[in-house]
Amino acid sequence: MKPSVVTGIGLAAVMAASIGTAHARDQIRIVGSSTVFPFSSYVAEELGATTKWPTPVIESTGSGGGAKLFCDSNDMDSPDITNASRRMKPSEFERCQENGVTDITEAKIGSDGIAFAQSNENDPINLTREQIAMALLDKVPVDGKLVDNPYKKWSDIDSSLPDREIRLYGAPTTSGTRDAFDEMVLEAVTEEMEEYGNEAYSNIRKDGVYIDSGENDNLIVQKLTKDTEAFGYFGYSFLEENSDKLNGASIDGVEPEPEAISSGEYPIARSLWFYIKNSHADEVPAMADYVELFMSDKMISDLGYLKGIGLITLPQAELEEWQERVANRAKLEISDLK
How far is CA 142 from CA 66, 133, 139, 153, in A? Predict the structure, then answer.
């Protein structure tokens, strides 16, 4: 039984058209990260297949879009859970509080690398974060001054790089993957450069080089198989699932492999999360079984099913700590996010 995926009219419309908001419901409603989506979907499918509960409805909205839907309302027509490929922002937490969503539990499920990938028709490549930043930023240093980005080809940046046009399929601003990419690549590079005043800078050029590809990472995979000179970025699990079509660039000399991502050696690695709206627990009793299943050794331990589809698992001690926090429904505080 496959998880329900809502497209077109969106989850909010489905919610509004469903049973009255004052009544309990069996079906869990989940929004959020496209990176966490495959893992959440696996758990949802397992819940639907092995329990009395229907398979949850899941919408891939991006981390930012999911947080907005989750925090907009405490009503029963709002999402019960939101997935995130970066930690909830303090501003999102405050929005939740303002709208009556005051009892939230945070769940960390593992980690993930952001793969910078290309078609297998190309030879494997090593790129530095600085080279990627110089390819994408709207302003770059030339002769000590910031100028409009003049680079058209990768070889314009460094003669050792391919003589290919710079073209990148990437995530929109609502995406946690985009947030992480900007922070760990663009901002990490620019805050070390005097030309940017040693301040983080992440304004991406708007001349068609960066192609916003929405929240569907599978769409980027499809684009790269056809546009073989382009690059794209997405969660490591999508690279692993499509290794017959794509290869991932080494970043700063480190290949995107599970051990390097888990250890933090791979420089574009981040944590994966979901957030639980505890106020819905009584009216949506399936939530308890879903959360317990997601946090179980069966799913997220080193021997769990989700490792097989690309999740980078937590060290054992950290895993047990998060399992306990979630089991006790530890209440998220803004101090946790700072």
Answer: 39, 14, 9, 16
Q: Please, which residues bridge with residue 57 across strands? A: 4, 29
Q: How far, in Å, CA of 62 to CA of 175, rounded? A: 4
Name the amino acid, one letter, at 289.
Answer: D
HEC string of the chain?
CCCEECCCCHHHHHHHHCCCCCCCCCCCEEEECCCCHHHHHHHHHHHHHHCCCCCCEECCCCHHHHHHHHHHCCCCCCCCEEEECCCCCHHHHHHHHHCCCCCEEEEEEEEEEEEEEEECCCCCCEECHHHHHHHHECEEEECCEEEECCCCEHHHHCCCCCCCECCEEECCCCCHHHHHHHHHHHHHHHCCCHHHCCCCCCCECCCCCEEECCCCHHHHHHHHHHCCCCEEEEEHHHHHHCCCCEEECEECCECCCHHHHHHCCCCCEEEEEEEEEHHHCCCCCHHHHHHHHHCCHHHHCCCCHHHHHCCECCCHHHHHHHHHHHHCCCCCCHHHHC
pTM for the model stands at: 0.81
Give the span between the Cα atoms of 335 and 338, in whole angstroms: 5
Q: How far apart are CA 80 and CA 272, in angstroms?
A: 18
Tell me what the mean pLDDT of segment 92-102 comes to.
98
> Pick the residue with more confidence: 332 or 18?
332
What span, in angstroms and rounded, lies between the C-alpha atoms of 71 and 102? Answer: 9
The string of pLDDT tens digits covering residues 115-171 is 999 999 999 999 999 999 999 999 999 999 999 999 999 999 999 999 999 999 999
Rounded CA gap, 73 and 63, in Å?
Answer: 17
CB-CB contact of 118 with 247 (8 Å): yes
- Per-residue pLDDT reduced to its tens digit, 210-252: 999 988 888 999 999 999 999 999 999 999 999 999 999 999 9
Enter the tokens of residue 215: 């929240």
Classify residue 122 as exposed, middle or buried by CB count within 10 Å of its CB (0-12, 13-18, 19+).
middle
Residue 234, phi then psi, degrees to nearest 5: -170, 175
